[in-house]
Structures are given as structure tokens and as C-alpha cells.
Amino acid sequence: MKILITGGNGFLGSRLIRRYEKCFRLYAPGRGRMDITDEEQVMREFHTFGPQAVIHCGAVSDTKACEVDRERSFQINVKGSGNIAQACRSVGAKLIFCSSDQVYSDCEEQYPHGEAKELVPTRTYARQKLEAERICAEINPDTVSLRLSWMYDRNTDLAREHGNLAASLLQHLAAGEKPSYPVFDYRSITNVWEVVDNLECALRLPAGVYNFGSENDKSTYEVASAMARALGAPEGAVLKDHESFAKRPRNLRMDISKIQGYGIRFLTTTDGIEAAFKI
Fold first, then answer.
1. Which CATH number is 152-187+216-253+262-277 given?
2. Is the sign of the CA dihedral 224, 59, 131, 96 positive or negative?
3. Is the pLDDT score of 157 beyond 90?
4. According to the model, what pLDDT value does residue 131 have?
């Protein structure tokens, strides 16, 4: 199978290439080769390579950067995704669009969210991801949108990647620092390699939107504490942040029963940490 991957230099995309480069014929054009905001360039690259499937990881995923420059992030996250969907339709390729659990950021409910929930997010990144889901499905009916959780990997390039909980924690511990994590924040937190391995199964999913990550009933503080213990840190190495989300606890946890119905399995966040760090 010929698969085109956008965002090949990013956190997920780079790992997809490492995992599948010997299994499939991959093409991961860099921005200099294919700027996803350039419709003609995207179409040209797609028709030259002729992918049967596309995994669209390319995005401005830094939520703060999206708030600072909304127009730039819109061009990439929304317009660029529409260009990818249009090119997929043109060559008959299945599209796997990497969305985000951030679409649930304004939900009041404290239980895990299902895909059918009506959403009206207020933050820029969440709005753009939700809009991109809609546009991709509208343009290319053969689109699978995966709402990905916060992902981590113990082994990473700290200078290049942001938002990796495990790597950030390692960096703090190595420097003798005691980082703090919120006790009123609950979200699915997933080993990126579980996502990578399950993406092959996602290629066979029917079109639609799917929560794609670990189930979790622990706060971010509890998850970080579990990671710290797995790394051999003493008790108290991680501090509690009682201020963030105190007035309105955040819940981004996902109900993954839909993908389980297709035989796709993820470890819970707790079990995933035990497996990843071999407790």
C-alpha cells in the first residue's frame, strides 16, 4: 500500500515513519516540498505519488500558538486539511485525519465523552480541529477522523518536541526540579506507540469520527506521579497544582467503546504507564 504522511517531522508522524517504513511504501513530503496551504502544490504531489491512503498529522498543535496567531493556524489546521481532503478525493485515497481530544474542552460533564456529543468549543485550536473534521468529511466522504489524546514517549528529542509529558518530566527530574501538575484536570493520556500500532487497524475503519486513545480515571497530577515513580523518583518529586481548573475542572476523557467495537484496543493510562516503563 502507498501511504502519504503529512507532518512527518512531528511527534506522531516521525514515529509512524519509523514503524511502517518497511511495511508500506511511504511518502512524507516536508513543507519545502508540499505546503499544505498551497492547493495546487498539494494536488500535484498527490497525483505524482498516487497514495491509496493518507495519514494527515500536519498541524499547528501548540494551543498557545493558535491563540496568538489565529489566521496562520487556521490556514494550516483548517484550510490545509481541506486541501488534503480534496486531493484525497481526487486520487481516490482514504483519509485518516488526526483530530484532538481538545474538541471536548468546554464540556461540563465529568464522565468520558462519546463521539456523538454536540460540541461548541471556544478555544481556537479546538474550534479549528472540529471545523477540519467537518470539512474533511464533507469534501472526502472516505474520511476517518481520529480524536487523539495527549501522547507521551520516554525517548524523544526534547529540543524539537513539545508537550511530551514523559520527556518533560524526565527533564525536570534530571535537573533536580519538582514540577507541579493540576489535580482538577482529567484527560486520556496515551503511549504514542500504542497509537502508532493501532493506526494500521484504523486504515480499515469505515468513515466517521472515533475517539482514539487510552481510557483514564486519574488526574494529570496522579498520572505524572505514577510516571515519576516508574522512573525511580522518590515520593514528593511531583507537586500538586490546586489552582489550575479549580473553578471549573477540565475533563477531556474519552469513551472508546466505538473503536473497541472494531477490535481496536488501548491499555488504560495506568496500565500503559506500567507497560511503557516496565514497573
1. 3.90.25
2. negative
3. no
4. 98
**How would you write the chain as a 3-class SS string?**
CEEEEECCCCHHHHHHHHHHCCCCEEECCCCCCCCCCCHHHHHHHHHHHCCCEEEECCCCCCHHHHHHCHHHHHHHHHHHHHHHHHHHHHHCCEEEEEEEHHHHCCCCCCCCECCCCCCCCCCHHHHHHHHHHHHHHHHCCCEEEEEECEEECCCCCCCCCCCCHHHHHHHHHHCCCCCEEECCEEECEEEHHHHHHHHHHHCCCCCEEEEECCCCCCEHHHHHHHHHHHCCCCCCCCEEECCCCCCCCEEECECCHHHHCCCCCCCCHHHHHHHHHCC
CATH code of the domain made up of 2-150+189-212: 3.40.50.720
Task: State residue 103's pLDDT score.
Answer: 97
Q: Which residue has the cell 472508546?
A: 256
Query: Whole-model pTM?
Result: 0.95
Question: Domain boundaries in the chain?
Answer: 2-150+189-212, 152-187+216-253+262-277
Q: What is the mean pLDDT of the segment spanning 107-131?
A: 95
